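Example protein was shown:

_____
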Amino acid sequence: MVVFNNQQEEVAYLRFSMGNPGALLVYELLDAEDFNGGVSGIGSSLTISLSKMEEALKTYQSLWNEEDLHKMNDFSKSLHKEIQQFLTQCVETAIKEKKVEVTFC
């Protein structure tokens, strides 16, 4: 997944290996299940509003508490950090531009 701003500059990037459950979660959070091509995205883009991005970030953050984070193995911690960072960057861009363009590739 790649996010571009209005100037077509890449502002966020998230890559998953095949079968990574984090991918399914992010597609679901973004209401973008139709863009999931299995191994990767389908190569199309979706414009997502600021309110939807804020909702996705808030929902993601509500899934984990500090105790859960401490129990995670290194892979899960890394994945959590990557998803958190991706969603945060999307929200920051959407605050400035009222939306983000996510390309699922």
